[in-house]
Amino acid sequence: MNELIRTTRESANGTVVTVAGELDLTSCPTLEEVTRQALSDGAPLRLDMSGVTFMDSSGLKFLLVLRRRLAEGGSRLVLTGLREAPMRLLTLTGADAILLPADPEDRGQQLNPTSPA
Question: What is the CA radius of gyration of the chain?
Answer without folding.
Answer: 13
